């Protein structure tokens, strides 16, 4: 059999072209992240801008430039991957949230945070899912299954509180800061748990048994994931205390903390648990026990390392969302009926508003019944701020939407394309408009 050198040469050329494209993509994103950091630094005193809005804006501008260069075509500079998001970008963000959290305030308001983040998220999930089923089935948006509607509920019940925390002062408003921060993290974890639970069940014939199994699965994931996070954090503290790595090298201490934190996340993924909850509570335990067992140099290094990794991951996500907004492949499916796309986005925004109001005010009332001190109670202005602060949809919503409605970042179905473009619209609108309006609301709160 003759060896086909021509075919081998063609394969080598394709591999080289693929490698070159990857290098171009990496160079572009690294340069853009640097630009976001520099511009964010220059705009640090401007309360109307923050890293997320800056990254979105730069991503949009870059997308426009790429479209002009490519003659209106959409070259996929970077293919979206759910694995990239959930395995590499999300862990440092969630872990740093747990590692940096003020534990006294967090656990003082723990029941209220769990009430908002878990039960509140469930109420929002049900509200948005039922609304989507009742409204979208009557619209001409393509074929969607019952699992898609429930996935929409999970996608749009998740919040993104990162930007809100940039304008909340922890010292001036500790209660509000703690509630918004804690609810945001628990809410994200709950949404991912709900999303995974919905995907793992046959929802073509829903009955009482399936509903109870769904609830039981959610409770199991919550308890087991939290327990695994505590065990991983305590084990890291025990290993570092007994072996005392700092006697010889702080590098070993830093490395073991980073690797064991990431290991907790991957073990949770391995056993199909909620890796977000696991790594979040691992971060809390490590900051309380492990961090105090390392040398002073390691404490400073780990604190800044975790914060830096989280910061870069967040910028990368918002950059990609901004660039992907101008992916013409998705928008061509709705170009013949832009009115439907606007209606779907508007309906989703209304459902988000209603879903959030459905739990913030009632659960705040229940929480206040258990508080004895007036300072610990949540007044109406604070309730309104919590409701408004949680309206922003961001990275987790985008990742879940891509997971449900695309394959490798692409979609060829009209209904799926409409849901992706609507998710992008909601994320952009809620991130920019809500953030600016919240700043005005927060200014009024400070004056009063």
From TrEMBL:
Subcellular location: Membrane
Transmembrane feature ranges: 20-43, 55-72, 84-101, 113-137, 149-168, 218-240, 261-286, 306-323, 344-365, 385-403, 415-433
InterPro entries linked to this entry: Cation/H_exchanger_CPA1, Cation/H_exchanger_TM, Na+/solute_symporter_sf, NaH_exchanger
Record field: catalytic activity: K(+)(in) + H(+)(out) = K(+)(out) + H(+)(in); Na(+)(in) + H(+)(out) = Na(+)(out) + H(+)(in)
Major location (coarse): membrane
Signal sequence residues: none
Record key words, sorted: Ion transport, Membrane, Potassium, Potassium transport, Sodium, Sodium transport, Transmembrane, Transmembrane helix, Transport
GO biological process: regulation of intracellular pH; sodium ion import across plasma membrane
Membrane topology: Multi-pass membrane protein
GO CC annotations on file: plasma membrane
Cation/H+ exchanger transmembrane domain residues: 31-433
Highest taxon of the lineage: Eukaryota
Gene Ontology molecular functions: potassium:proton antiporter activity; sodium:proton antiporter activity
Cited PANTHER family: SODIUM/HYDROGEN EXCHANGER, SODIUM_HYDROGEN EXCHANGER 3
Name used for this protein in its record: Cation/H+ exchanger transmembrane domain-containing protein
Organism encoding this protein: Anisodus acutangulus
């Amino acid at each position: 059999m003759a060896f086909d050198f021509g075919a081998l040469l063609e394969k080598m050329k394709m591999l080289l072209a693929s490698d070159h494209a990857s290098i171009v993509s990496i160079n572009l994103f690294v340069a853009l992240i640097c630009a976001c950091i520099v511009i964010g630094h220059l705009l640090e005193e401007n309360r109307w801008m923050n890293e997320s809005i800056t990254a979105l804006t730069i991503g949009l501008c870059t997308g426009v430039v790429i479209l002009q260069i490519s003659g209106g075509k959409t070259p996929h500079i970077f293919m979206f991957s759910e694995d990239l998001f959930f395995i590499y970008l999300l862990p440092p963000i969630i872990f740093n949230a747990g590692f940096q959290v003020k534990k006294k305030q967090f656990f003082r308001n723990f029941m209220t945070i769990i009430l908002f983040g878990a039960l509140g998220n469930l109420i929002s999930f049900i509200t948005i899912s039922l609304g989507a089923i009742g409204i979208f089935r009557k619209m001409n948006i393509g074929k969607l299954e019952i699992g898609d509607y429930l996935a929409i509920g999970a996608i749009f019940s998740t919040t993104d509180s990162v930007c809100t925390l940039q304008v909340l002062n922890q010292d001036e408003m500790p209660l509000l800061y703690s509630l918004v921060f804690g609810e945001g993290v628990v809410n994200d974890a709950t949404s991912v748990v709900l999303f995974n639970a919905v995907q793992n069940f046959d929802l073509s014939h829903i009955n009482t048994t399936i509903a109870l199994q769904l609830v039981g699965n959610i409770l199991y994931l919550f308890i087991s994931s939290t327990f695994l996070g505590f065990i991983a954090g305590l084990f890291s503290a025990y290993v570092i205390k007994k072996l005392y790595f700092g006697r010889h090298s702080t590098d070993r201490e830093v490395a073991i903390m980073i690797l064991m934190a990431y290991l907790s996340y991957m073990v949770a993924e391995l056993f199909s648990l909620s890796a977000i909850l696991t790594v979040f509570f691992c971060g809390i335990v490590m900051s309380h026990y492990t961090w105090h067992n390392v040398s002073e140099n390691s404490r400073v290094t780990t604190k800044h390392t975790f914060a830096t990794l989280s910061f870069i991951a967040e910028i990368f996500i918002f950059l990609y969302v901004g660039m992907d907004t101008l992916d013409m492949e998705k928008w061509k499916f709705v170009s013949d009926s832009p009115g439907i796309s606007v209606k779907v986005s508007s309906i989703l925004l209304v459902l988000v508003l209603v879903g959030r109001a459905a739990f913030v005010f009632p659960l705040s009332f229940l929480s206040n019944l258990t508080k004895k001190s007036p300072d610990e109670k949540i007044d109406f202005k604070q309730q309104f701020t919590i409701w408004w602060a949680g309206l922003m949809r961001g990275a987790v919503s985008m990742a879940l939407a891509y997971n449900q409605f695309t394959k490798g970042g692409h979609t060829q179905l009209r209904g799926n394309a409409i849901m992706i473009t609507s998710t992008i619209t909601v994320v952009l609108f809620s991130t920019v408009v809500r953030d600016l309006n919240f700043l005005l609301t927060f200014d009024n709160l400070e004056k009063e």
